[in-house]
Amino acid sequence: MVLGIDIGTTSSKAIVVDENLNILGEARVPHVVDTPKPGFVEQKAEVWWADLCQLAKSLAEKIDIKKIQAVGLSSMGPNTVPISSRGEPLRPAILYGIDTRASVEIEELSKILRQDEIAHTHGRFSSQSILPKILWLKKNQSELFQSTYKVLTTNAYIGHRLTKNYALDYFTASAGALIDFSQNSLYEKSFRSIGVPTAIIPDLLWPGDVLGTVCPEAASATGLSAGTKVIIGTTDAANEAVVCGCREPGDSVISLGGTSIFVTCTDRPLMMENALVCNYLDENSYIIGGATSSGGILIDWFSKEICDSSPSELASLIPGQIPYATGLLALPYLNGARNPLNDKLAKGMVAGLTSNTRLKDVYMALIESLAMEIEMMIEDITKIVHIKKDLKVTGGGANNEVLLRTICEVLRENIDVLPPEMGAAAGAAVLAGAAIGEWTIDQAAKMVPVKRRYKYSETNDGYYDRKKELFRDAYIANKRIFAGLDEMARAIHSS
């Protein structure tokens, strides 16, 4: 048996599989995101550890978890967790690209380094980058920064709690713009430019490397056997690429989670300013990808806060045929816009409301906006990368048939949807099994079934072409309004 753990934005998941990837046990624990002020998105690292202990307890009610031979880790990211020399979090974790507090620091770093950042990291610093958030800590919480021994990400923190060892995986580090691709090591010049020692970042490991073994304290807290191997793992997007069998250039996957993520494999680190260029599983594999700031977060927010309903209830309002045409247009930028726009000031909106508008119309407009944001991200990446046909789709959003059918039509591509349980936690389990020699990653991917194939109908191009044109126009036309609204919100909050 191998265990995969995934710490996500809104919940933590666990899955235990056998040597044939049969699922022996699953568990899930929800948690909340804290937003103390506009642009600030945080979670307490202690919540992640409490989740893991609860997941282990739930699994132990179904199976003998002491027989688990290896644990693989997955998480949202890259997050920023400053810890003390005793391994204690010094403040709540600053989350990945949905936290936009370090905009001034991003500009400062980019000004200092000029074009050097692009030459070495193959992209620009953004809200996804770790170093601007470290600089924000140094400038705004200086005493805390002086007490910082290491900066970890989520899977690195969980790995430390399990093993007492410190490490950061290459994929997460490069997604956080910490890697100099000319050396496949930390981008030292960027650290020197702001007076931060590179020693604040732990040693780098590849996602399938063994971090250590479960220590006695962690065994007592979780019920796992002391000495069980722990694999460092990586961020959720890469783990989902693993379970989808993405290994060759052009292999691609869409992950529908709290945010929407697209990644495609390459055999070299191509340069692209408005996408994420990342190490993958070893020194010869890379990923180019992008992520949105909304996905499941948007649908959950709309269903709970606006409708006092559930996402499944809203989906049931939509008739079987797609498109369900409305006279509405939505922008999905609930927490700003990430790739390829990288605009932290972008806001969500719905245009076209009339007295005839119904709830299902607004819901459908939001669904379309998510699909069009994914399409815009993929279109940008395909300017330099060839993407193979028949995309794989995974993540919790794979349960939303309305979203899946809309994505299929908007992208004009057939999509193969994996079972929802074959997500990031399963990818972490695959890496764990590969680390102990149970299978190769390619062998494991062949055991993962396709739940359903959605075929592009070729009959709705005119409707979606016009919607996509208006989608782009709406963002451009409202940029000045977004900036004004952001200024007003900050003034209100400061007062």
Would you kindly provide a written description of the structure presented here, covering whatever features stand out?
- With 495 residues, the chain is an alpha+beta fold.
- Helix content is 38%, strand content 19%.
- The chain has a seven-stranded mixed β-sheet with strand order 17-18-16-15-21-22-23, with helices on both faces. A six-stranded mixed β-sheet has the order 3-2-1-5-14-13, with helices on both faces. Strands 4-7 form a two-stranded antiparallel sheet.
- Helix 1 crosses helix 6, helix 2 crosses helix 4 and helix 13 packs across helix 14.
- The relative contact order is 0.13.
- The model has no long low-confidence stretch (mean pLDDT 93).
Share in helix = 25-40%
- State the end-to-end distance: 55 Å
Radius of gyration: 22 Å
Please indicate the percent range of residues in DSSP E strands (runs of 2 or more). 15-25%
Number of helices: 18
Give the neighbour order of strands across the main sheet.
17-18-16-15-21-22-23
Q: What is the chains' assembly state?
A: single chain
Uncertain segments are none
Count of DSSP strands: 23
Overall geometry comes to globular
Mean pLDDT: 93
Structural class per helix/strand content? alpha+beta
The main sheet comes to: 7 strands, mixed
